[in-house]
Amino acid sequence: MPSIARARRSAMSLRAVLRSSRWTSTSDQTKKGRPRAAPLTILTPYMLICIPEVLTKPQVANIRRLIDAADWVDGRVTAGAQSAQAKRNTQLPEESPEARKAQTLVSAALGSNPLFLSAALPQRVFPPLFNRYEIGDRFGAHVDNAIRPVKNSHERIRTDLSCTLFLTEPEDYDGGELVIETLYGAQDVKLAAGDMVLYPASSLHSVSEITRGARTSSFFWLQSMVRDDGERTLLFDLDQSVQTLSATHGPTDPEVIRLTGIYHNLIRRWADA
What we know:
Blueprint: H1 5-8, E1 12-14, E2 21-24, H2 27-31, E3 40-42, E4 48-51, H3 57-68, E5 73-74, H4 81-84, E6 87-88, E7 90-91, H5 97-111, H6 114-120, E8 122-125, E9 129-133, E10 138-142, E11 147-149, E12 156-158, E13 161-166, E14 173-174, E15 178-182, E16 185-190, E17 196-200, E18 205-207, E19 212-213, E20 215-224, H7 229-249, H8 254-270
Parallel strand pairs: 1-3, 2-16
Antiparallel strand pairs: 3-4, 4-17, 5-7, 6-10, 7-9, 8-20, 9-20, 10-18, 11-12, 13-17, 13-20, 14-19, 15-16, 15-18
Helix pairs in contact: 3-5, 7-8
């Protein structure tokens, strides 16, 4: 079971879900002397998780120096027929040297992030892509393709989860919110650079128009070992609870051991390894 004790301290699990909420980690709070709000985690049959500090600020700056100097192309190169009608942004060519180097940095960070591993239970991760929204750019409501072929390979990935990793601080642009439609209303997501949101790829979602500045992000999809969103969410919930009990009662507590066994038995029942 992935250990998420440290990451869990910075994540907040919500049982009661607001019909409409705006998730931000803007500088307004820090400017007023208040601590940065904890990222939100909605634990329902619909997994929607904000993972803090996937990248450190120096890592973000390093990736930005790398990709900002590269040549960008029309973002519709990776869009499906329907999505292409709604997509207006630019994208880093996925085969460019800059993209390859940035992909390696993002992938390494993901592989060492315990909260991401626990929530996603990743089996295959699509090589991270990079996009940029400037003034007037937007991406209308769309659903991601169910299957994504990996370029220059025979591999195909079932897109169970979508990921957006923010590489621009929210105070540097207006608009650009990732709007995800859920059973409980629209969720507007705008996070600090280095933070990431993880949500079902089956979601109807959009990016609102940029009215000031520019937003650069990494985005990608993954195929989970557990394809069912409800089952995966229950496993994440159970893992978080086991980590909490282990921290308070110790890893050798009989109930901790019993619940750990239940977790792994559910993995055996539901996972495609």
